[in-house]
Design goal:
The chain is an alpha/beta fold. Helix content is 32%, strand content 22%. The protein is globular and about 50 Å long. It starts with 6 loop residues before the first strand and ends with a helix.
Length: 193
């Protein structure tokens, strides 16, 4: 079992040339800009400022690596931020493709999706990419605390339909504010490491 208190920031890479080979199992966090990746990481490790949280989308532009025992946790830059230049979007795409193609030991991808909104085209693209390549993943449905109970019940039913094609993938309702879903998320991570 991992000791989540022993996490430490390791390094950041923003260019393909900087990405070093790795043989450690990696737990990867992926999702749209402003979906709550940094908040989830901070909640998971009970640290306020381990990953930088910003109200402004698109702040994480590098791949950030954290080490916890013999496991590496990886915070990918958010995708789908409209205010990025085409060159920046291309750089992001190349960096992600290189990361996933670089023969790393990707144990699990935690795909974050904002529970309040329908799955975006980019989310579907990422899920299809992982399905096509046989990359193990789970889905964390973030920001569930921001919905009223009736709204949440409706959205959860809609989500079940939206994700009907992948109903065998664990979907964890998650709140960084209340800690809902934390135990389930840790249990899934433990299965893969």
């Amino acid at each position: 079992m991992l000791n989540y208190n022993k996490i430490e920031f390791e390094t950041s890479f923003g260019a393909i040339s900087q990405l070093k080979f790795s043989t450690m199992p990696e737990i990867v966090f992926s999702g749209r800009s402003n979906v709550g990746k940094s908040s989830l990481i901070n909640t998971l490790f009970a640290r306020k400022n381990l990953a930088r949280v910003s109200a402004e989308p698109g702040k994480t532009v590098t791949i950030n690596f954290y080490k916890c025992g013999n496991v590496r946790f990886v915070d990918l830059p958010g995708y789908g931020f409209a205010k990025r230049s085409d060159a920046e979007k291309r750089r992001w795409g190349q960096l992600m493709e290189y990361y996933f193609d670089s023969d790393r030991e990707i144990a699990l991808v935690v795909q974050l999706i904002d529970s309040r909104h329908p799955m975006s085209a980019e989310d579907a693209e990422m899920i299809n990419y992982m399905e096509d390549r046989g990359i193990p993943y789970i889905i964390a449905l973030t920001k569930v605390d921001k919905m009223k109970p009736t709204e949440r019940k409706t959205r959860m039913a809609e989500i079940k339909e939206e994700f009907a094609a992948i109903d065998d993938i664990p979907m964890i309702p998650f709140s960084s504010r209340t800690g809902e879903g934390m135990r389930e998320l840790k249990a899934e991570i433990e299965k893969y490491i």
